[in-house]
């Protein structure tokens, strides 16, 4: 049984922030273009975290610079790809659709493991089938054609899955604030050329989008990503994923409250099946962890 601790609450707070941020991102697309908005939010998050990292942790004496650069480059590139596709998708889909489809990255993580020779349990394939059915109901209107915006969100979920795997590999050896700051710095550098030479944002664009930029840059990026790393020190990843998947529910509520978005009965059914598939994908891992924990308590010391 999962006990709700302070760090579980932190993850619930992160899910609420991330869910409501889909509304800010959707609103931003009325006054700013995707890569320009991402560049602004990434730069704000990096400029907020880098001084904090330097001041509190004096990183260069503790972590090899080459390791930090490599980890930041890999995670930052994946972060850039995920957010770019997510933001482009929000031009043509709703905040609630984007959140539900993005949450499906949880199911894709075992698929990447399959490429490395790690076979998922049988239950995973039922979960994957449920997610595919849920995506179909959520993103189509009865035909086989998926809406363009939803297709971008689905493509972005593969980047989020790879990002989780990369964080699990590099996050063990680096400072949470340092790694978060580094990946946002890399994402800023990747977004800047596209934004500055293709979209050409103006000061007026930034001023008109200041609210969403501050929300996405400070709360969603700098604060929420750091809280996630802090909470994962004590909360098991499988439990954390279950809580974080609730961001799609928060996004649907926020979209209804602030944007007046509504889902049809068909879409609500698809969202429910998709969420069920996400939970089902994690059920086996959670059950296995509990069984291992019970077995460990029976071993004499």
TrEMBL record:
Coiled-coil region: none
Topology in the lipid bilayer: Multi-pass membrane protein
Domain EamA stretches: 9-139, 149-280
Pfam families (alphabetical): EamA
Domain of life the protein comes from: Bacteria
Keywords of this entry: Cell membrane, Membrane, Transmembrane, Transmembrane helix
Record flagged with keyword Cytoplasm: no
Localisation: Cell membrane
Database matches in InterPro entries: Diverse_Substrate_Transporter, EamA_dom, EmrE-like
Transmembrane segments: 40-56, 68-89, 95-116, 123-139, 151-170, 177-198, 210-232, 239-259, 265-284
Record's protein name: EamA family transporter
Species name: Tepidiphilus baoligensis
Lineage: Bacteria, Pseudomonadati, Pseudomonadota, Hydrogenophilia, Hydrogenophilales
């Amino acid at each position: 049984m999962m006990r709700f601790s302070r760090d579980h609450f932190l993850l619930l707070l992160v899910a609420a922030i991330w869910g409501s941020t889909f509304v800010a991102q959707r609103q931003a697309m009325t006054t700013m273009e995707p890569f320009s908005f991402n560049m602004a939010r990434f730069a704000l998050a990096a400029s907020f975290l880098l001084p904090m990292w330097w001041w509190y942790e004096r990183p260069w004496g503790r972590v090899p610079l080459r390791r930090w650069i490599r980890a930041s480059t890999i995670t930052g590139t994946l972060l850039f790809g995920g957010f770019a596709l997510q933001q482009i998708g929000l031009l043509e889909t709703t905040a609630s659709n984007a959140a539900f489809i993005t949450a499906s990255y949880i199911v894709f993580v075992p698929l990447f493991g399959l490429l490395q020779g790690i076979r998922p349990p049988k239950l995973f394939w039922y979960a994957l089938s449920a997610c595919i059915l849920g995506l179909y109901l959520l993103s189509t209107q009865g035909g086989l054609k998926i809406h363009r915006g939803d297709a971008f969100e689905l493509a972005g979920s593969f980047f989020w899955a790879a990002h989780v795997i990369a964080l699990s590999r590099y996050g063990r050896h680096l400072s949470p604030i340092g790694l978060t700051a580094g990946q946002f710095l890399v994402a800023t550098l990747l977004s800047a050329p596209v934004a500055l030479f293709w979209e050409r944002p103006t000061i007026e664009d930034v001023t008109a989008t200041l609210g969403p930029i501050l929300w996405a840059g400070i709360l969603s990026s700098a604060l929420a990503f750091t809280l996630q790393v802090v909470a994962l020190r004590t909360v098991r990843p499988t439990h954390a994923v279950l809580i974080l998947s609730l961001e799609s529910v928060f996004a649907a509520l926020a979209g209804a409250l602030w944007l007046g978005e509504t889902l049809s009965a068909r879409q609500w059914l698809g969202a429910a099946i998709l969420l069920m598939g996400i939970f089902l994908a994690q059920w086996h891992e959670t059950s296995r962890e509990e069984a291992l924990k019970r077995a460990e308590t029976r071993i004499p010391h």
